[in-house]
Amino acid sequence: MTDDALRRLGGLVLHALEEALTALERGDLALADRVVRDDLKVNRLRYELEEGITEELSSATGKDVRPLVGALYVLAELERMGDHAEGIAKVALMLGPGPTLAMPGVVHELGRRTLSMVQRTLGALERQDANMARAICLEDDDIDALYDRAYQELISTMVADSSHITEATYMLWITHNLERIADRATNVCERVVYLATGHVEELNVSKY
Questions:
Q1: pLDDT, tens digit, 9 for 90 and up, residues 10-34
Q2: What would the pLDDT profile of 81-106 be if each residue is shown by its tens digit?
Q3: What's the distance, CA 190 to chain centroid?
């Protein structure tokens, strides 16, 4: 039950992030609105699955409960990643179909790298591949570096032209959501290692 549960929720979250980034890139407000509305499905599924796993735990006397305990942690992280994807879609709605400020290339790069990280994290989770999970965590500093570059570029834009303050601020919110998604992906990777080995390793230790 737990493997299927995590696969189902992970699939919804990945789809939400893909659509949020697409809506942002294309200025597709209908798609952004759908991502926002569909977040309710992510929330409902998380709590439905959590109730099922908790019920399993209550009758798991004498069984290995590690998969169930690990799954509970992962469900919470995935649901929060969905919330951040919803946050990106909300910003797309606020920016509208044709913002006057072009999205910096570094923000697009941050989006691509974060999406790739989530895709591979879900793959590591499905296969319970501890080595893959550890390798993914090493990318977190790269994500943080991209976040810092985006932050500095957007702040410089605000200083240079006050007419862009509102849109640049919205774009800062996007970068924050992406950075948080990447952090939560590394948290999931830590749980993958736990599920695979039975040992908790602190992998999400940034140099920043």
A1: 999 999 999 999 999 999 999 999 9
A2: 999 999 999 999 999 998 899 999 99
A3: 15
Tokens of 93: 């709605």
Whose CA is closest to 130, among 178, 44, 79, 70?
A: 70
How many Å apart are CA 169 and CA 57, to the nearest integer?
Answer: 45
Report the amino acid identity of residue 24: L
User: How wide is the angle at C-alpha 89 spanned by C-alphas 87 and 92, nearest 5°?
Assistant: 115
CA–CA distance, 76 with 193 (Å, rounded to integer): 17
Closest by Cα among 103, 117, 119 to 175: 103
Distance between CA atoms of residues 36 and 20, nearest Å: 9
CATH number for domain 2-197, candidates 3.40.50.1980, 3.90.550.10, 1.10.274.10, 1.20.58.220: 1.20.58.220
